[in-house]
Each structure stands twice: as structure tokens, then as C-alpha cells.
Amino acid sequence: MNESQAISALGALAHTQRLRVFRALVVAGPPGLTPSILADELGVARNTLSFHLKELSHAGLASVEQQGRNLIYRADFSRMNGLLGYLTEHCCEGAPCGVADAKICSPH
């Protein structure tokens, strides 16, 4: 993942409803969800949800597939992992770090 792709993905996730939609897709896993199920689960109007799904798709964080009369949306796990890898690539200057090591990694 490059900087431009990371900015696009982070921008797409920088909205409460889109973050909730993306997290719901992550929880659903590979089977994905239809927009109607997502709308019901999240209590979001379907036209609003459509806009958010489009934004996640444009950022590469979600994919859509037509199955019969239904659209199935799925989280793009490789893109999600790419973003996480990009954000943590040089964490702690390459040394292993975790929650217990957070104070070591902080700039203070």
C-alpha cells in the first residue's frame, strides 16, 4: 500500500457511519452482507447506506458482487491488512512491540 491509498482508506473510515458499516462487514466475514441486512443491523436509511458503501468501495475497503437479485458487500481483508501493515511498518524502529511496550514506542 502506498501513501495515497492509505489516505484514501483512512478518509473513507473517518466517518462514524462508514466505520460502523466497515466493521459490520468485517464481522460478517467472507459471506458478506446485503445492503438491506446492513441497513437493518445499523439502523441506517438505505439511501444513506448506499452512499457509504460506495465510498468504502471507492477506497478499496469493500467489494460488491451481484448474486441473483441481491448485491453482496464484503470487506476487502487484503486491503484492510495492507492499511494496518502500512501504519505499523516501521513501528518501534523494527523492534517487536506490543501494548506493554507502548511507553517505549511513544515519543515522550
Automatic annotation (TrEMBL):
Keyword Chloroplast: no
Domain of life assignment: Bacteria
InterPro entries from the UniProt entry: ArsR-like_HTH (IPR011991), HTH_ArsR_DNA-bd_dom (IPR001845), Metal_resp_trans_reg (IPR051011), WH-like_DNA-bd_sf (IPR036388), WH_DNA-bd_sf (IPR036390)
Domain HTH arsR-type: 1-95
Keyword DNA-binding on entry: yes
GO molecular function terms attached to this record: DNA binding; DNA-binding transcription factor activity
PROSITE patterns linked: HTH_ARSR_2 (PS50987)
Keyword entries, A-Z: DNA-binding, Transcription, Transcription regulation
PANTHER family with a match to the protein in the record: ARSENICAL RESISTANCE OPERON REPRESSOR ARSR-RELATED
Official protein name in the record: Helix-turn-helix transcriptional regulator
Origin species: Allopusillimonas soli
